[in-house]
Structures are given as C-alpha cells and as structure tokens.
Amino acid sequence: MSDALRTSHLTKVYGAGDLAVRALDDVTLSLPSGRFTSIMGSSGSGKSTFMHVVAGLERATSGTVVIGDLDLSSAGDDALTRMRRDHVGFIFPSFNLLPNYSVRQNVLLPLRLGRRRPEGPWFERIVETLGLGGLLAKTPEQLSGGQQQRAAIARALLGRPEVILADEPTGSLDSATSTEVLELLRICVREFGQTVVMASHDVAAAAFAEQTVLLSDGRVAGKVSNPTTRSILTALEALDVRVGIE
Fold this sequence. Notes:
By secondary structure, the chain is α/β, with parallel strands linked by helices. The chain has a domain at 3-93 and 162-241: 3-Layer(aba) Sandwich (Rossmann fold), CATH 3.40.50. Helices cover 34% and strands 26% of the residues.
C-alpha cells in the first residue's frame, strides 16, 4: 500500500532564542492511502500545527512533507496553492461555507476556482451518499450544524484529492451529530477509497479511525492500531497524557 502523506524529521519552531516554542519536534510519519488516521493529543500537543504544516498553510522550520509525489518543503508558493486546490480536501470545525452561496455553489466552489468541470456521476454519488439531495438549493443559515458539515465533506471530496485533512471536524457539533459526521468520514474511506487524516482532542472521535497517532509536546508519542476508546486511553495513561472524552 502506498503512502498518501509522509513526513520526515518535521520540525516547526515559533519565535527565537529564549522565546522559541518547538511546536513540532522531529515528527516522522508515513500515512497510508485509503485509510482513516486520527492524530490525537491534548491542547498544545502540536496536532493543529501538524495539520497546518502538512496542508502547506505554514512552512516547516526543517524536515520534509510529501503529499503524493509533491515535496512541500521545496515547493514554491504557486505550487503550494495548486496543491491545496487540487490535491487536498479540507474540513474545518467551523464549516467555512460562504453564507450567500447555496449548498450546490459551496460544494462546487473549489472546482470553479480551479477552472475544472465537475464530474456529473461523481457529484451525484457524493450528494446521494451524504444525504444532500434535498439541500442543494438551501443556504448555510437554513441548515443544521450537521448538515453544514455534510456539505463541507462533499466539498472536500468532489475534487478527488490525494488526502482529506479534517481538523477537529466535530468541534462545533453535539454528540449525536458528531457521531453522524464521523460515520460519514468512515464512508469516505470505505466506499470512496479516500484517505482521511483527522486531528482531534477527543478520544471517542479518534477511535473511529483505523489507526491513531498520539502526539505529545510536538513529538510522536505512540501509535494505536484498530483503536478503541479503551485502547487509546490505556496508551495515553502509559504516556501520562490527559485528554478529553465527549
């Protein structure tokens, strides 16, 4: 199985001298294609910084990030922009839907910006699978939080990206809706063959993945295969790391 995302000795430092903060410290990971991986850690563990750096939203201080065949560490600004547009799908906790656009327009927006035509059958399959058929003409304010996140997932899927990066995708949702969204991320992997990398501080959310990477103080502190809430908690207790359960 090939890797969708690889990092080697990835380091990110903010500030300098006595004020320097090492948010990522020598992170080396290989995340396989077609799998659901969760990045788990408490506040300040480095998981959000990791997501920003591998997405090309921030430059690493040192080390490499490779998505597909593109080495982000040597890519120029234009190449990074194309990578984010064409090879990465983003899912945010706050949905990031344009308020004056319909669901259809929001879902199609990244393709329109890249001057790419949507594939009709693929669009229809995504809409049907995510239950958006009756919502395409509505605006975000007419939707529940769960419906808005479904639209955001559809937007991330439509361009067939190398990887979907989901940063705390259930952070703005209640427990029942969070479970619904996490099940949809599983569907993205199982039915669409998509690669999903999700950052979360919540043990129950992280356990939806096929593997969990534990971050602590900017370092990879451990990995859990076929995670459950109990197995993640056991691993965290061994590391003396405290996180939340929702």
